[in-house]
Amino acid sequence: MRVAHGRIRVVTNERFETLDITGRVQGWLESINGRSGIVTVYVPHTTATIAVNEAEPGLLNDIVDLLKQLTMPGSTRWKHNRIDNNAHAHLSNILVGHSAVIPVMDGRLVLGTWQRIIFIEMDGPRNRSVHLTFIGE
Ligand code: ZN
User: Fold this and answer.
1) pLDDT category, 132, cuts 50, 70, 90?
2) I need a labelling partner for 22 at 20 to 30 A (CA). Which of 33, 71, 99, 102 fits?
3) Total Cβ atoms within 10 A of residue 61
4) CATH number reported for the structural domain that contains residue 88 in this entry
5) β-pair partners for 109
6) What 3-state class would DSSP assign to 46?
7) What's the total number of domains in the chain?
8) Neighbours of ion ligand 1 (CB under 5 A)
9) How many Å lie between the centroid of ligand 1 and the Cα of residue 90?
10) Angle at 95 between CA 6 and CA 41, to 5 degrees
């Protein structure tokens, strides 16, 4: 068994944005020749999130729309907005999560037909990192 670490840089251009990073994660897996095990995809941020779901453009809009409805950007209800005005982004991170664990078989991410790894920016534009860890052989 071995462990490998990597990092993907993600540049976002909008306050709210979704990016399909599946190809970059698969590419990294191939670059380290990970064949069998798991990959963790981890966002070291408190105002962006990682989801595994379908990357259909309408749905990506719906995801951001739902998060906005739930977390109410700019709302005076949130105490954090008094100092940082991005409580909605922190709360989205709490709701969606900051990581994913994906099985690897035969050198491929094990994803269902419609599953993609989606980076969700909730307080851009920013330079972001996504940390990857492979555990396996
Ligand atoms: Zn904040």
Assistant:
1) very high
2) 71
3) 12
4) 2.60.120.460
5) 104
6) coil
7) 1
8) 84, 86
9) 6
10) 10
